[in-house]
Amino acid sequence: MSSYESLRATGTNVICLSPWGDSSPFILPCIRFRDLAVHGVVMATGGMAAIAAPVMGPVSDAIASTVGDSIFVEMGIHTGFELTTKTADDLIGDGAIKRIVPFHSTRLETTSVKTMAITLMYKHTVEDASLGFFRSSFHKDTSLFSAVKDYFSLAKGWFSPYLFASGRRPIIPRSVKPDVVFCHGPFLTGDYKIGETLLAESALVITLCAPPPTEHSPGAAPGPEVATLPTQHSFLSISDLPKLNHFTRSRTPSPEPALAPVLQPPAPRRLLIMVLGLKPHRTFWTTSARPSESVIQYQLLNGCPAVVLPAKLGAPLVAWDTYTLQDMWKIRVPQDGEKESTGDRFHGMVDVLFEYMDLCVDWDRVTLQGVSETEEEKKVEVKGALGLVVASAVRSGSSKEVVKEVDPDRCGLVIWRIP
User: What's the pLDDT tens digit per position in 339-376?
Assistant: First the structure.
């Protein structure tokens, strides 16, 4: 059974990263962190991963506010980027897990960068984002609290501008050293629209789950019928009961008996894993935060595939790996067929990412080219797909276009929940 304790400060204040994810001084009272519970989770590898999750009620996108419904996308110049999204499922095999994953495929070479300026409208006041932190069991030191060496690291906040520009303040203590930072809310329906836009604009996509059913798709299963409130019970006809209309009533009549509506099951969601870069609307990040709207430039690399997986109920709204592109460029991609060795940073990063995804993926819904397999085979192929994403990010360092257009300290792996 997991043991819980409160994450508290050792003094009266907690030093955090700036809400923009930079080194600007930002100090908050320690009481802010009493709603963060630290617990250990035994992973499939037998190790103990540390997770600091926000203490909150059931998470659901059904309670989303109706504000922030719209986004506006302005496409920039992206010469050489594919006009249509291409499937890349064959990179991880055709259902046979014995095939070697081609980390050095020419399709993983980045030659172009697509930049989109997306405006997200919202109408809520600024509030704290419900952040959580994940530390993998693969580390020798699984503690979430960092040493002095990592205290000044800014990489864990590289994706913070996305939240803060839309009125959601990310509070990331400098004293934590997570592998993945995840956010449960506040939720805006515009988050889903941005995720779907990024997926539609990606050059390569590896899809490992069935597409969401639509009302007009010919093969879509009929959705559950919406329960209506009947005026009377089918097994007891109200008309058979004696009428008391001839009595004078001195109070408001009671409502007619009615059946309670049947709660509909939550709609299945998906997870989008991709390499994404961020840039401010103008030179400084403060220009991305306008009154009631955020304007951020999103950058996609044409050699980095996006992976779509089925999401478990309650999966975070958005998450990001704390390894930036600058960090990943220092990793060596192993040759195809090369065995994993001790201290291999590439496979270590893939293992950490897969361990986190194992907590969020609905394995029963994972499919490869429409073929269902055993859970072990599914995990092998999902891990291979994640390896391709990491390999493509590492190899992007040799692209002159990426070096010229992308800020490597504001680019990395993002996990997005979408419909």
Answer: 766 558 899 999 999 999 998 999 999 987 656 578 88
Nearest C-alpha neighbor of 166 from the set 190, 144, 193: 190
Token pair, residue 40, equals 């250990």
Pick 175 or 263 by higher pLDDT.
Answer: 175
User: Where residue 55 falls among pLDDT bands split at 50, 70, 90?
Assistant: low
Helix (H, G, I), strand (E, B) or coil at 118: strand
Of the listed ranges 14-28, 217-231, 324-338, 368-382, the least confidently predicted one is 217-231
DSSP symbol at 409: G
Amino acid present at 32? R
CA 381, 387, 393: angle at the middle one, nearest 5?
145
Residue from 369, 418, 358, 409 nearest 49 by CA: 358
Determine the number of helices (DSSP H) and then strands (DSSP E) in the chain.
7, 19
pLDDT, one tens digit per residue, over 217-229 is: 444 444 444 444 4
Report how far residue 66's alpha carbon sits from residue 217's, in angstroms, rounded to the nearest whole number.
27
From 322, 282, 281, 306, select the one nearest 411 (Cα to Cα): 322
Buried b (16+ CB within 10 A) or exposed e, 166-177: bbbbbbbbbbbb
CA distance 341 to 353: 18
DSSP of 252-314: PPPPPP-PPPPPPPPPPEEEEEEEEEEEESSSSGGGGEETTEEEEEEEEETTS-EEEEEEPTT
Least confident of 75-84, 286-295, 310-319, 409-418: 75-84
